[in-house]
Model the fold of this input.
Amino acid sequence: MLIDHCGRSITYLRISITDRCNLRCVYCMPPDGVAWQPHENILRFEEIVEFVRVAAGQGIRQVRLTGGEPLVRPGVVDLVQMLSEISGIDDLSLTTNGLLLEKLAHPLKKAGLKRVNVSLDTLKPEKYLRICRGGSLDAVLRGLSAAEDTGFEPIKINMVVMRGVNDDELVDFARLTLENPWHVRFIELMPIENQQDWGKGFPQPSNAFISTSEIKEIIHADGLTPVEDLTGYGPARTFQLPGAMATIGFISPIGQHFCSECNRLRLTADGNLRLCLLNDFEIPVRDAMRAGRSILDILEEAMQLKPEGHSLAKKMSAHNRKMAQIGG
Done:
């Protein structure tokens, strides 16, 4: 088992398989995007599979594929197939913006993907275009329907809540769970290289944060009952509206951080092991593997160096990567 120096059992690995994305969401990257890594810097599928194979032998049980947008990487279905065949991986999931999900839902499910999370911050088409700087809300909704029809369960919607941007839609999102098997997760805005001006019509990023406590108060009028998360893998505090088909979760890395319960590592697309989302320290993996270093040694080093928690209370935040370059 992977046990870090704080006594936490590490069972969850998030893997960014590309730094590229087909959207330019205001809180995730600048309007002109970020400089993409050259192809040779990105981990090859065989390297990802070998890393996961070794990590699974040491107790990693859940793997989530992220990006960028993971569905833009050619061959993603093949990668899912390879990962699904690794002994010890109990849960293989993927986070996507949903734009390509309508086409890929069925092949991904057939390849062995268990679950999908869809990032969606508004239900209003014009606002969607403003926040995402492109894309199509209708395409995302078709992707959600395709995921449901294909048999993915549970399907989760991740909404990053921003004051003055989409906080007027909190009740609408919560009520999605009444008539759809879509589990909604409200996520606090995280200060990861997104504090520059978002453009005309948006608040200053420093004023956009809204805590999950306040979010919960806004939608509590409809009545919320605590329930256990269906998967048990994530940090959400989970509730349900009366008579709802699905649940509502609150993820609060800032307001009520869950560092003491952190069970995860993150592997970036360019091959670095990031030990905390909100801490810039990383262990090189790609170059180490290509030089013949043992993956077990890398994991052991990670257990010794994983920080006890983030340092946002000390006004120290991650700044060496945009969120799209980490994978969330």
